[in-house]
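Subject: Sanity check before I submit

Could someone independently write out the structure tokens for this chain? I want to compare against mine line by line before I put it in a report. The sequence has 364 residues.
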Amino acid sequence: MIKFRDEIKDLQAYKPGKPIEDVKREYGLKSVVKLASNENPMGTSKKVINKLKESIDSLAIYPDGNSTLLKEALAEKLKLKTTQILPSSGSDEMLDMIAKTFINSGDEVIMADVTFPRYIATTTMMGGTPIIVPLKNWTYDLYGILQKINKKTKLIWLCNPNNPTGTIFSEDKLIDFLKRVPEDIVIVYDEAYREYVTSPEYPKDTIKLLDDYSNLIIMRTFSKMYGLAALRVGYTMASEEIIGNINKIRGPFNVNLLAQMAAIEALNDQEFVDNCYKVNKEGKEYLYCEFDDMDLEYAPSETNHIFVNVERNCNEVFIQLQKRGMIIRPITGDWIRVTIGTMEQNKLFIKLLKEVLNLENTIK
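---
Independent answer below. Compare away.
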């Protein structure tokens, strides 16, 4: 009999947002809107599309395994050394590489209870022991995390803004936290949604913290604001020592050619980013007003999604919305997560949600 590693025995495969085509086939629908996976409803920069068309003739050639040009573009923009930056095939690959680099069997790894599920999966995969700290008001409890640190603690996962709740903790709280964590404990700071933040309290310039905290790893992605989710490209910043060691286990050619070219071009299209920020902000404010009118509780979001209590089992609402051609994400209990779409998509979501919740006659 084939035997598998004990560490993966109780792991569940990651379940992405349901594909549009699957929902169309399942319910016999011609039109389906997906607001489940926090994808950019504005698509991808036209400059990026044009760059990809230029690069399409090079598909027979292996990509630069070092991602040299992308590293150089990021280093220039971020004022870092190229040896402090490591591109990856999305943040998902980097989470696995970090876990493989640092976590030994029996190590304790601290994370929140309602946050990105890959943190617990990669920890468990390596035989680490997840130490779960509940959110407070749907926000990271940094003090609670500090209380869980002991001699077995190897690594701490932080997500700011948090997925799926969209909440943040301030720069002051982050710096106070970093000062209190022993320097031999790795802190992974995931800021995948940083470009959407409107709050002045958010730590906008975390890169400066790398000089003072050699145990800090910062992760960013091109999947969200830059609209490159399909190409799978992200990047991580840390000390040269940390980056050098993670790089030892990186697979060759892990970031494909088109992803590298698209990411470089995306960095140069600030107009596209600014427009996406504006559309997201307007959409968020619209959805807030509608939720208020429907008397639905929600967590204040600094991302491109909103965590909202629909006062009914989230899976039931998920199914009923799907039947009407709208895909959202059920999270826990009565709480769902909905991606902020275009204004047309947002209005359709509200219309269908009211149908599902029997609130069709709610007047704004």
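---
OP: Matches mine. For the report I'm noting this point. The longest strand covers residues 153-159.
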